[in-house]
Write a structure and sequence with these properties.
alpha+beta; 2 helices; 30% strand
Length: 89
Amino acid sequence: MSRYFEAPGGLRIQPVDVVPGSPHWIFVRMIAPDVQPGEVWYLVTRRGAAVGRLPGYYQLHELTDLLETLGLSLADLRETGGGAETGTA
C-alpha cells in the first residue's frame, strides 16, 4: 500500500511521483502541461472523490492553500499507509 496522509473530515492526501505513461502523468498534464517527469504532486480525495478541482492533483503550495480554505494545515495531517512508521519519536 502506498504512503498517504489523513486529515480530519475524511481527507486523504497521497504524494505521487509523476512518471510518463502513468495515470498520474495523464491527469497532472491536464492541469499543468509543462510538468516534468519525477515531480511530486499530491492527490487529494475525500471518501474517494476529488477535492477542489478535478482530478484533485495539487503542488505543495496549492495543497497548503487548499487546506487553509478547509480550516486545516499541514500539521493536521497524520501519516498512514505503507510508509507510516509507528512508535518512533
